[in-house]
């Protein structure tokens, strides 16, 4: 599997995709899963940063994903980007349509996966510890916190405490409350977890 799990800054994306996909004679087709950030003020800025890399962006609303056509859609992509926002809303959107299983299967089969914040969190085994950072009220019908289980750790993004919604005291509360029960991996906003056949390592993304 090839995964790039960002806290926030997308600077590591081009080198990651160059390594996974290589040179193409056409713009790289990047599926953009936007459910987590719907209605949020930062969503358009995040997307603009990804579009600036020059990729062909294919909008995906996981909640509306047609499971019967999911194979055809995923086959048409060179990589997938799961955007930031509300973690529980994202997981609910993926699970309600069955997109979670389809996506996880394709990533395990070789489709490069890029997550940002919420998109990085759902790649792990569960999203439970992030209930201190994101709102369960965004997904009142969600019954199961299990993530895509692509990695063993649970990403704790924004761990440098620089974003106003996630001050250092809150990050520490997450680590203290859940650190003994879950394999938490804090990432600063200028870091990412790079996962490949060679293993996993934290890299710079600034």
From TrEMBL:
Sequence intervals crossing the membrane: none
Coiled-coil positions: none
Record InterPro entries: Class_I_gatase-like, Peptidase_S51
First and last residue of the signal peptide: none
Keyword Ion transport: no
Alphabetically ordered keywords of this record: Hydrolase, Protease, Serine protease
Gene3D superfamilies: 3.40.50.880
UniProt entry tagged with the keyword Protease: yes
One Gene Ontology MF term: serine-type peptidase activity
GO biological process, one term: proteolysis
Similarity comment text for this entry: Belongs to the peptidase S51 family.
Xref: PANTHER family: ALPHA-ASPARTYL DIPEPTIDASE (PTHR20842:SF0), PROTEASE S51 ALPHA-ASPARTYL DIPEPTIDASE (PTHR20842)
Name of the protein in question: Dipeptidase E
Organism: Leucobacter komagatae
